[in-house]
Amino acid sequence: MDDKCIFCRIADAKLPAHKLIEDDLVLAFLDLHPIREGHALIIPKQHYPWFEDLPDLTAARMMAVGQQLARAMKREWGVERVSFFYTGIHVPHTHAHVVPMSHRHDVTSARYLEDGFEEFSLPPSPGGAALTHTAGRIRARLAEAC
Ligand SMILES: [Zn+2]
After folding, report:
1. What is the pLDDT of residues 82-118, one digit of tens each?
2. Separation of 141 CA from ligand 1 center, angstroms?
3. 84 and 129 Cβ atoms separated by less than 8 Å
4. Rounded to two decimals, what is the model's pTM?
């Protein structure tokens, strides 16, 4: 618990939220600034700044709650897809966004919009050699003790 952290205060019921699902590990509630109606956040009850810091059980619970919300959102809004993502922006307490997608670019990176809002642009491929190099860089980091 971090008294200065707004999500810790919500998890500890010291601030109000429009709660959707709550258990001993996680809490899901509505985002106050939704991309689309129903946009929810899932947070761990404990303070972890980054999603990669989550214990395996909490990480799995975050995903399971996201799946549960996605099924409900599809039924309620009749959308084809619901996105689930972490950005680590705004509040330094891990939070997953769950957004019912009415438009395919509701959560798109600007990198995919170079051909306009109704298109889906593919950024240029760096090519096989560059991808091989990049994969090697990540594999080398994965091989390090964490
Ligand atoms: Zn926190």
Report:
1. 999 999 888 999 999 999 999 988 988 888 888 888 8
2. 28
3. no
4. 0.90
Q: Which helix (H) or strand (E) holds 26?
A: strand 26-30
Q: What is the largest CA-CA distance in the chain?
A: 53
| Domain boundaries, given as residue ranges, for the chain | 6-107
- pLDDT tens, residue by residue, 32-67: 999 999 999 999 999 999 999 999 999 999 999 999
User: Which residue out of 47, 95, 105, 133 is catalytically annotated?
Assistant: 95
Out of 3.10.450.50, 2.160.10.10, 3.30.428.10, 2.60.40.10, select the CATH number for domain 6-107.
3.30.428.10
Amino acid in position 111: R
